[in-house]
Design brief:
With 225 residues, the chain is of the alpha/beta class. The protein contains 6 helices and 9 strands; from the N terminus they run E-H-E-H-E-H-E-H-E-H-E-E-H-E-E. Strand 4, helix 4 and strand 5 form a beta-alpha-beta unit. The termini are far apart. The structure holds 5-O-phosphono-beta-D-ribofuranosylamine (GRF). 5-O-phosphono-beta-D-ribofuranosylamine (GRF) binds next to helix 1, strand 5 and helix 6.
């Protein structure tokens, strides 16, 4: 039996790296179709770098202030990933805008996770804004990156309830737990070609199990029968 071909992926981080950890853990599974070839951080003190090192993954620190322009920074990131043979990049808490050139170089090869149900709450402070808006369901989105911030074909989403006692922190923790399940799942399906880009939307293959049509998250819930 031939071993699974593991697609070399790159991960871009700026901080804590809990989504990176979810990807590291997924890649530790024998049948997972990816391996992390390189983690790039624009912040030297990012905790995610320790997670990568602990897993024996190569890291590069590229402090954005070392580059005269955003384009020069992005070119260095691309060169680092190309040197490592990376074919798909996952942004995981990478807190810098990237240039249209970078997005074009990695067209349909650049994934991001965003802590809201896009297209709602693009940008920062999504949990506080969700609470302020009074939404009753919130969540996270894995999408392909396009030039406009937090747009692009949606690969998958996870929804969580917003509860009466929620603070932005409590809601963030609930969403984050969902992020850790969603990101490796979407990456796997994408690499396996089971979710595919068709123009500016993503189609789910007919062999992928989808949520039963009678299942929905109603918040506040219906009374028990
Ligand atoms: C996550 O909430 C992610 O959705 C957003 O930034 C946060 C990164 O957290 N893009 P971590 O660094 O993965 O722990």
């Amino acid at each position: 039996m031939s071993p699974t071909r593991r697609l070399p992926i790159g991960v871009m981080i700026s901080g804590r790296g809990s989504n990176l950890q979810a990807l590291i853990d997924a890649c530790a599974e024998p049948a997972y179709p990816a391996r992390i070839a390189l983690v790039v951080s624009n912040v030297a003190a990012a905790r995610g770098l320790e997670r990568a090192r602990a897993a024996g993954i190569a890291t590069r620190i590229l402090p954005h202030r070392d580059f005269a322009t955003r384009a020069a920074f992005d070119a260095a990131v691309t060169a680092a990933f190309e040197d490592a043979g990376v074919e798909i990049i996952c942004m995981a808490g990478f807190m810098r805008l990237v240039t249209p050139e970078f997005v074009a170089r990695w067209h349909d090869r650049l994934l991001n996770i965003h802590p809201s149900l896009l297209p709602a709450f693009r940008g920062l402070d999504t949990h506080a804004r969700a609470l302020a808006a009074g939404v009753k369901v919130h969540g996270c989105t894995v999408h392909l990156v396009r030039s406009e911030l937090d747009t692009g074909p949606i690969l998958g989403q996870a929804a969580v309830p917003v509860l009466p006692a929620d603070t932005p922190e409590r809601l963030a923790a609930r969403v984050l737990a969902a992020e850790h399940r969603l990101y490796p799942h979407c990456l796997r399906l994408f690499i396996e070609g089971r979710i595919r880009v068709a123009g500016e939307v993503v189609e789910i293959d007919s062999d992928v199990e989808t949520v039963p049509t009678d299942r929905c998250l109603i918040n506040p819930p219906l009374p028990k029968p």
